[in-house]
Amino acid sequence: MHDITRKADTSPTSLARRGFLIAAAGTGFTLAFLQLGVSFAEAEKGAAKTVFDPTIWFDMDADGIVTVNIAKAEMGQHVGTALARIVADELEADWSAVRLKYVDSDPKWGLMVTGGSWSVWQSFDALSRAGAAGRIALIEEGAKLMGVAADACEAHASVVSGGGKTITYAEIIRRGKLARTYTPEALKALTLKTPQQRSLIGHDVQALDVPAKTNGSAIYGIDAVLPGMVFARPRIPPTRYGSTVESIDDSDAKKIKGYIKSIALVDPSETVPGWVMVFADSFAAASRAADLVVIKWKAGAGVSVSEPDLLAHAGKLMDDKAAGALVVADDGVEAAFTNAKLRVEQEYTTSTVLHFQLEPVNALALEKDGVWHIHTGNQWQSLILPTLAKALGVAEAKVILHTYLLGGGFGRRLNGDYAVPAALAAKALGRPVKMILTRSDDARFDSPRSASLQRLRMAFGENRSVTAMEHHASAGWPTEVMIPAFMPKGKNDKPFDPFAISGADHWYTVGAHRVRTISNDLANSTFRPGWLRSVGPGWTNWAVESFIDEAAVAAKVDPLAFRLTLLDARGKNAGSAPNAVGGAARMANVLKRVAEKSGWGTSMPIGTGLGIASTFGQERTMPTWTACVARIKVDSKTGIVKLEKLFLVIDAGTIIHPDGALAQAEGAALWGVSMALHEGTAFVNGEVKDTNLNTYTPLRMADVPELDIEFVASTETATGMGEPPTTVVGPAIANAIFAAVGARLRHLPMRPAALLAALEKNPRT
After folding, report:
1. Buried b (16+ CB within 10 A) or exposed e, 290-318
2. Which residues contact 620 (CB under 8 A, 6 or more apart)?
3. SS3 of residue 190 by DSSP
4. What is the C-alpha separation between 541 and 369, in angstroms, rounded?
5. Which of 234, 445, 546, 705 is deepest in the core (most CB within 10 A)?
């Protein structure tokens, strides 16, 4: 496993610990990280040193064009625009002169990962200080050129003015002698703009990535072309692990014009065991030939595993009280349940979920002068680089991942495993190879979100007061499989996957609280569990918010009132600076507002109901307070649920890019709807049952509900927007179904047949 240091030390949150160098470099201006010890007198030496360190985040040329280097993946979320805004606002750059550059992999960028809604949250302070440092240096040099005191000058839209004179940033770069260093302490001491002084952050401006996407000039991984390349489509074995090739018969494939050959890949990294790559001079030929190649495999042990086996195994693991890691472990849980006046206990499950991003995974690989070049869209370059190096038998420094736009990520491209077979194919053939998976190939090779099993219980004391809550969860753990170094240890000193349990450590005050998470080793060995938009909170919040509703009903309390009682913002739920100021009180605030907007508490027509839920997104360390009310109508004869409207109120702190935030909220909410009512598959004999969109049925346009989304005006820390609404929609819909017809559904997706069965057991008169 590659030696990656803790994310807290490699993420952009640590960048402010380094100093900055601002200096003239050639015909432009650079702002770069300094190695400690570089002095003002060594400015030119520091400016020239760009290969290893310093790490450059933006530059400005002699024409005043500002290029912001984006080390994040763009997959429709406008991350480049958001990060560039942060720099440009403090820099006081003319927005029309700002450009984006999505950078290739290089150690100087630090940990390259785009996921978890981290990008803006992690980058905001460091990039703000970078922009502010650049502005100050330009003002100081501009003042010298104009013969005006620097403290009499200000900057706006790439122009420095003062003493009745003006000078553009471009002219300062052409005429000036920029040389300015900042120690980490000096950077930390910089005074950043107040929210009221910002001209770009929080305001509507053109998203820089939109024009290329609308005029067709945007280049995605699947668009990559290199001279002399051939095409390849893989034949994927019957199991993810353990399959071996026994024979290949390509006699029929040879009849396809353009067919070259078929090769069984040899993979030292064990990423794609048993793969056969089919080569041709076009993808159409490669695809047709692949269908004709006859391969005999010896399957791995996972061939005997199906979905019920995964859930049954999770149940057995959960029955072992010593299994798993304790994430929350308060004293007094057992005593509270022993003395409880009322106990509520339920079990919740979710199906295996696929990504089905629009652009199937692909990669183009070639070797040149001893360096391997991989052209593909990727969310986590730092994760796959060491695996590629191992597969190719070269040093990691000999592999470069070239960056492209992603035609959908949703977490699938966090696992860049698809780059490995392309690279191995190019090595085996000795030519540049572009590998493209068909939609069905993509589904079979997906890193799906694991099926999950959860058991929750709550104890009530006198006067229906909550005295304890317990939550057990088991699923496949993507972090354990792909990067165990990222796993912290629980209260019982056992490592756990935080992305498979976040959300269970909620902000409700419930007395003695216990949360246990257990790795489903059968899932881990049958397929490669992956991160999927909202990750674990997609299932943990499903259980928590469904269960809170059930507990409220058992206690004979209105579900909204019950939640507000538990959100008392005391103790560990009081919140803390800088990320969770206000704590549970902010969750209570969005709940109250969404209830007001939706008409909570008013009478509804027969068969129609309102359901409420609230979550904090993905992690307690960066909460995005989100509340949802779903209005649904149930056809009790067919079991079909019509989602009429979703009301969402979101407190994400400072909103950087309003239009982008709204798009994120809409997309995330509809993703939640899709997983709640429509999509999900199952493993059958080691493979997913559904491999295309004729049977795997995500949300269709005709089923999109009306959306009413509101953001709380806030100047608090900017937190994530990629995931949060996804986590809250499912339970809100389930709670609305109960309100409408009295049926409780505890499995995702909620199918009509399951609803009819529930209605039959518990018909509401």
Report:
1. bebbebebebbebbebbbeebbebbeebb
2. 502, 505, 507, 580
3. coil
4. 50
5. 546
Distance, CA of 66 to CA of 47 (rounded, Å): 17
Q: Report residue 735's pLDDT band, with 50, 70 and 90 as the boundaries.
A: very high
Intra-chain end-to-end CA distance of the chain, in Å: 60
DSSP letters of 392-424? HTS-GGGEEEEE-B-S--TTGGGS-TTHHHHHH
Identify the pLDDT of residue 23.
53
Neighbouring residues of 701: CB distance < 8 A, sequence distance ≥ 6:
none
pLDDT of residue 56: 67
- CB 145 within 8 Å of CB 167: yes
Q: What is the mean pLDDT of residues 454-482?
A: 97
| Residue 26 zone, left/alpha/beta (φ > 0; ψ -120 to 50; rest) | left
Q: At what angle do helices 419-429 and 381-392 cross, to 10 degrees?
A: 30
Show Cβ contacts of residue 107 under 8 Å, excluding neighbours closer than 6 positions: 52, 397
Q: What does the alpha-carbon distance between residue 666 and residue 659 come to, in Å, rounded to a whole number?
A: 11
Strand ranges in 86-128 using DSSP code E only, listed in sequence order: 98-102
Q: Is the pLDDT of residue 484 over 80?
A: yes
Nearest-angstrom CA–CA distance, 429 and 281: 13
Cα torsion 45, 49, 54, 58 to 10°: value is: 100
Q: How do beta strands 706-711 and 640-651 pair?
A: parallel
User: Is the pTM higher than 0.90?
Assistant: yes
Decide: helix, strand or coil at residue 545. Answer: helix
Token pair of 530 as six digits: 């992956």
- Gap between the Cα atoms of 575 and 653, Å rounded: 14
- Low-confidence winner among 183-197, 410-424, 487-501 (lowest mean pLDDT): 183-197
Nearest to 566, CA basis, from 455, 623, 558: 558
Could you give the 3-state DSSP secondary structure of residue 500?
helix
Taking the CB of residue 531, how many other CB atoms lie within 10 A of it?
27
Residue 580 dihedral angles phi and psi, to the nearest 5°: -125, 40
> What's the pLDDT at 48?
35
d(CA 477, CA 283) in angstroms, rounded, equals 34
Tokens representing 543 are 């259980």
Average pLDDT over residues 328-332: 98
Give the tokens for residue 562. Answer: 């019950």
Is a pLDDT exceeding 80 seen at residue 21?
no
Provide DSSP, 428-497: HHTS-EEEE--HHHHHHT--PBPPEEEEEEEEE-GGG-EEEEEEEEEE--HHHHH-GGG--B-TTS-B--
Cα separation, 189 vs 195, whole angstroms: 18
Which one-letter amino acid corresponds to residue 218?
A
Give CA–CA dist 705/703, Å, rounded. 6
**404, 381 contact by CB (below 8 A):** no
Measured at the CA of 465, the angle between CA 463 and CA 469, to 5 degrees, comes to 145
User: Phi-psi category of 176—alpha, beta or left, where left has phi over 0 and alpha has psi -120 to 50?
Assistant: beta
Q: Both tokens of residue 10?
A: 């490699």
pLDDT band at 756 (very low <50, low <70, confident <90, very high): very high
Token pair, residue 205, equals 């401006």
